[in-house]
Design a protein that fits this description.
Among the domains are: about 90 residues, no CATH class; about 70 residues, Winged helix-like DNA-binding domain superfamily/Winged helix DNA-binding domain (Arc Repressor Mutant, subunit A, Orthogonal Bundle). It is built from nine helices and nine strands. Strands 1, 2, 3, 4, 5, 6, 7, 8 and 9 form a nine-stranded mixed beta sheet that branches. The protein is elongated and about 95 Å long. The chain starts with a helix and ends in a 9-residue tail after the last helix.
Amino acid sequence: MNPKDTESTEGKRKTKRKSVKKESQDLSQESSQTSQEKKPQPKFIDSSLSSLVKQIEKQSSKQKSKSSVVFARNYCYEVQQIPIKITISETRKLNILEEFILRAAIEFTPPPTTEELAKVLGLDIIFVRSAIERLVKLNCLEASPLKINITPQGEKCYQQGHVFSSPITKLIYAIADPLQAEIELKSDILNSETKVNSETKDLHSLEELVNLETRIPDINQLQIEQIQEAVRDLGLEVELLEDEQAITDFKVVGKPQTCLQSVFVFVLFDKLKGNYTTQVRRKRQILELPSTWLTELEILQKLYLELRDEPSSSVKNP
């Protein structure tokens, strides 16, 4: 046999042995990986959340996401509660005389007097003076005995074609929530208890894991439009007729109070993707923004992995 042919045959045998060895190693790795995937994840579930965990996993199985809850705890954190007094005013359309007076106050330079307006309109000065006094009470005109001066409120009323009257005041509460990074409006006061009591003794502090101080929203950013929308759309127990009433003013009337808010925090393991996500709930409502934020921080996922890798990882209720 040609020496070159012998060398070629031997080389092919070595290559084949290496290929068989590599396939064997790959199969071994796949088997090991499959074994790890099938191995159940240790779970750390607060006993009070067991029922909700079962519901979450049942819903997950219906959605074919194959997610398992491996960590569930009650957490609490501090929010600031600020009392706010809102002014609600009824609205009505401007009558012809009121509309003309406001228009004259805007367009005439210098602004006209009561006598001048009465002369232009050909009306008795008593009628004109009565209408002006009414507009002054509604904060549409400045109280000036000489000239008819328009106010910002008066310009707004003229543009909208109606005036606000019969104001009433209501007390609501702005909740500066750092976890959700937003101001929530409520008609009922929260429990102002800030110390651990019989209801909160089993809660873990979320602020021990994440810094929430930098996320506290500024009450000064609250706009009257937000209050109007909240009263109409968010179910606040404040009567506000659709086209007959509007919120015309608001102001803070007390010091902020520190209150506790509780949330349920879950870590879910996706069996298909092999990754962990954090889910935050208030009762049964999923809080999307905090869930996304905490998932990105990976704080709770890392906490679970630390507990999982501890020798006492078989404990289900840490």
